[in-house]
Every structure is written in C-alpha cells, then in structure tokens.
Amino acid sequence: MSAPLSDDFGREVTGVRVSLTDRCNFDCVYCHNEGLGDTRGPMAARDDEMDTDDVVRFLEVAAEFGVDSVKFTGGEPMLREDLEEIVRRTPDGMETSLTTNGTFLPGRAPDLVDAGLDRVNVSQDALDPETFAAVTQSGAYEEVLEGVRCAVEAGLDPVKLNMVVFEHTAGYVEGMVEHVAETDGLQLQLIEYMPELTGRPEWNVDIDRVHDWLAEIADRVERRSMHDRRRYWVDGGMVEIVDPVENETFCANCGRVRVTHEGYLKGCLNRNDDLRSMGEMTKPEIRETFRETVAERVPYYGEYLVEDDDGAYVLDEEYVG
Questions:
Q1: For the chain, which domains are there?
Q2: Which of 5, 77, 138, 315 is deepest in the core (most CB within 10 A)?
Q3: 243 near 214, Cβ under 8 Å?
C-alpha cells in the first residue's frame, strides 16, 4: 500500500463512498441520492449497477493508493443481495461501514458482522411514526427501530442514527438527543439540510442554532479532524453535526471521493460536472481515473464557489463551461 494521494490543496484521500445502487424502498423528501438527484427507479436489480467483482476491483485499487476506509451507500445498499460478499472481499485493513435505512438489518446484521462490517449508520429522522412516514413516504417506522436494535445486538455498536435537520424534523432534535443519551449503543449524527441539492429552500433550518443549543447543554465539546466536525457529549450520549453548507472549513478538510453505482468517480458530493467513467473497470483504467479524479479535486466552497462582494457564493469563473 502506497501513501495516500493528495490533491492540489494538500488534502489526502483516505476514504471512499461507494454507491451500490440508486434503488430504495423509501422515498425520503430530502433525498439527493449522493448528489445525483432523485434518479431512483424500479426495485429490480439494474443492469447499470457495478457487479460484485467491479466493486471489489475498485476497492483493491483504492487500497493501493492508501485508502483505508469505505462507506457503502445508495439508494439503499442492502437491496444488493451480494452486500455480504462485497464486505467479505473488501481488502484487509480497510474499515467498512454502511449507511442504510435499517429495514433489512433484522436477519442480516449478524451475517454482515461475520463478513467484516465495522460500523453502520441508520437513517432515523423522527421518533414519531406519523412524521417518520411523512418524511420517508414509508410506513416502516417499527422495522427501522427493530433494525437498529438488531445492529446493536450484532455488535455494530455504536450505531449512528442519521437525522436530517429541516423544517419537518427540527422539532424532534431534542427528543433524539435524549434518546441516544438514554439508549446504550447509539450515537446521533445531525445532518444539515442541503437545499441546493433538493430544491426546497423553504425547508431550511439554521444549523447554527442547533450548534448553539448543544454547546449550552453539552458536558464537553470535541472536534474531529474529518471535516473539522464538532462533537457534543450530552449526558453520556454523543451528538455530531455534519454541516457542509457554505462551510469552507468543512470542504478544506474533506478526504473522500465518491463512486456512483454506475462506476463513475466524482471528487465532490455537490458536483456532477466532474464525473469520470472507469470504463470497463479494469485495474489500469481504475488507477488512471482515480489519479485524475484526485488531481482535479477542489474545495466546493472557497474554490469552486467563491464569495462575491455581497457575501453570496457564486460560481468561480475558472470553472464555467
């Protein structure tokens, strides 16, 4: 394994997010599908999805370049029947994690642990079935709660609950903080709503108000090196805020690239003008595309978008056309 590749801004790429499918059994109103927009279709397996060998081959090349962690995403990655095999074949020494809606964890969590899965994030945006159904357009509230319990019991603790903070869910933040503080094996990740990717700015909530509230009640506050995120410890529970919107510090500390389910590399969640095909997914093609993607990465805020005289972010003329 070589040292990680660095982009022109000194950011080492040590992690990858691999979307295994854009299919999902939920239809969350805030979903941006890893920055690609809502492209989900039928639930049947799609011909354009990378197959098992493609995913493993990419991970083997990523490991050559010093990548030491992978997060499998979607869509809903557990719709992939080969997920356990992919996890099992992930290169040794690479941390494996999964972001899921949790509905398929009952019955499969132990097998994923046996395959080598290290961590799991479960989307849970409310502690109320009606609000949960309105946000996810799904009636699977109890199934998600059971999935979380099964993940903890299988040894995937701490399970991180992902909660997108926007108009529909803001009233449940306090209850969710109390919930993780009272429940062994859980942590909470509050995710800033991204109106530029969903097209509904009227749903936005000022995430700084959440930061301020947590700072007042927290027993201690820590900062993670990844994205310079803040962690708040409240009554023994851990709450972390992911706040990328108009956050130059967040972008300046980003060490991840993303892979779409179709086998395209992208250097930034917010951009789709930098998609690069890995062709037939041979190792030489993957290596070349990986090097190109890392070399062309720029911070989204502070480079790709810059502030004008009025303090608004506008597209840098260098990247027009």
A1: 15-319 (3.20.20.70)
A2: 77
A3: no
Longest CA pairwise span in the chain (Å)? 56
Torsion of the alpha carbons at 196, 202, 203 and 206, rounded to the nearest 10: 80
Q: Decide if 264 contacts 237 (C-beta within 8 A).
A: no
Strands (E), 158-263: 159-165, 186-192, 220-223, 230-234, 237-242, 256-259
Give residue-wise pLDDT tens across range 46-74: 678 999 999 999 999 999 999 999 999 99
d(CA 177, CA 217): 11
Query: Looking at this protein, which amino acid is placed at residue 7?
Result: D
State whether residue 19 is helix, strand or coil. Answer: strand
For β-strands 119-123 and 159-165, DSSP reports them as parallel
Contact between residue 137 and residue 28 where contact means Cβ atoms under 8 Å apart = yes
- Tell the burial category of 144 from Cβ atoms under 10 Å away from its Cβ (0-12, 13-18, 19+): buried
Q: What is the mean pLDDT of residues 97-125?
A: 97
Q: Which residue has the tokens 């820590």?
A: 222
Strands 69-73 and 95-100, by their bridges, are parallel
Is-contact 43 23, C-beta < 8 A?
yes
